[in-house]
Amino acid sequence: MRVLAAMSGGVDSAVAAARAVAAGHEVVGVHLALSAKPGTLRTGARGCCTVEDSRDARRAADLLGIPFYVWDFAERFTEEVIDTFVGEYAAGRTPNPCLTCNEKIKFEALLDKAIALGFDAVCTGHYARLELVDGVPELRRSRDADKDQSYVLASLTAEQLRHSMFPLGDSLKSEVREEAGRRDLAVAEKPDSHDICFIPDGDTRSFLEDRLGRSPGKLVDAESGAVLGEHAGVHGFTVGQRKGLGIDAPAPDGRPRYVLSLEPVSGTVAVGSAEHLAVTEVDARRPIWPGRPLDGPTECVVQVRAHGGLADAVAEADDDGIRVQLRQPLRGVAPGQAIVLYRPEERGDLVLGSGLISATR
């Protein structure tokens, strides 16, 4: 097959490309320039898409003996990922930009261009297992539970998955680093990037305030309606947040307060005790099914965050989306987050589908 290897400049994508070469595929490497003003140097383990990352990707491609290109996707990344991220927070929702990037950039913009150029598949360093069974894609959790990325890949359509390769799905991260060392890849010990790549300092509130400005509103007690303080904008909060609320007076019962809900129109941020965060029902819109849609009520395990937030559940789909009844309450479930449905199986949890959370009860 002709395979386009997306090479971020990290160890995972470099080893994934190496495995594609070793499997006998005709591989071409490509680095996506996602920032109009990339930083000259990487700051520790934060951020990505720097000049250094591009150079690391090129060095890996040269060592593997494959052609290498840099494609400028900065404008589309800004529109599809950054602007969407800002808009979702302004609307009082909590988006996952990595999920949006996978969906809109790596497996829509990149894959569309790859197919147009005659490639059969896009290869990435994601940790997830993928196989075709009678032509139907089956996406499963990776062998390395700590690195599993099936959650942020669950928004991919069946057609996108048919043209995807995840060579690292059956490997542990330690094994990937060891292999990189054996292959003399310079990125073998390079730190992983983390947090949000376009907010390398990790200060999401300041990033949003720079773009949305200040929209003062009230912090209110969800039970009594008492005004507890003011804030600079609902975009500075997310459901389940405890720190940085700006409330000076302790609660009457002495227990900490958490953000329970956001109302962007009125600018109201409602806070309350932890038990009021418990959610037992979730509605999700825009369902995506890698295989077949649900056929009636289905026992499953759901995940509402990239790392954690799991519960047994019963899910059912209709024309309006997905309704999920949780068997164990979850906290900090916010509109805008993705909910991914898994079927636990002996060969690894199978992704049944996903949706974007629209309401909770």
Question: What does this protein structure show overall?
Answer:
With 361 residues, the protein is of the alpha/beta class. It folds into three domains: 140 residues, 3-Layer(aba) Sandwich (Rossmann fold); 63 residues, Adenine nucleotide alpha hydrolases-like domains (SH3 type barrels), CATH 2.30.30.280; 83 residues, Translation factors (Elongation Factor Tu (Ef-tu), domain 3, Beta Barrel), CATH 2.40.30. The chain has eight helices and 17 strands. The strands form four sheets. The chain has a six-stranded antiparallel beta barrel. Strands 3-2-1-4-7 form a five-stranded parallel beta sheet, with helices on both faces. It is an enzyme of class 2 (transferase).
Provide the spatial order of strands within the biggest beta sheet.
12-15-14-13-16-17
Q: What proportion strand?
A: 25-35%
Name the CATH class of the largest domain. Alpha Beta
Note the run of SSEs as H and E: EHEHEHHEEEHHEHHEEEEEEEEEE
Number of helices: 8
The CATH homologous superfamily of the largest domain is called HUPs
| Terminal residue distance | 48 Å
Domain module tally:
3
CATH architecture of the largest domain: 3-Layer(aba) Sandwich
Task: Give a quick account of the main beta sheet: strands, pairing sense, barrel closure.
Answer: 6 strands, antiparallel, barrel
In total, the number of strands is 17
Low-confidence stretches: none
* Helical fraction: 25-40%
Spatial extent as radius of gyration:
22 Å
Shape: globular
- Residue-averaged pLDDT, rounded? 91
- Which structural class fits the helix and strand makeup? alpha/beta
CATH topology of the largest domain: Rossmann fold
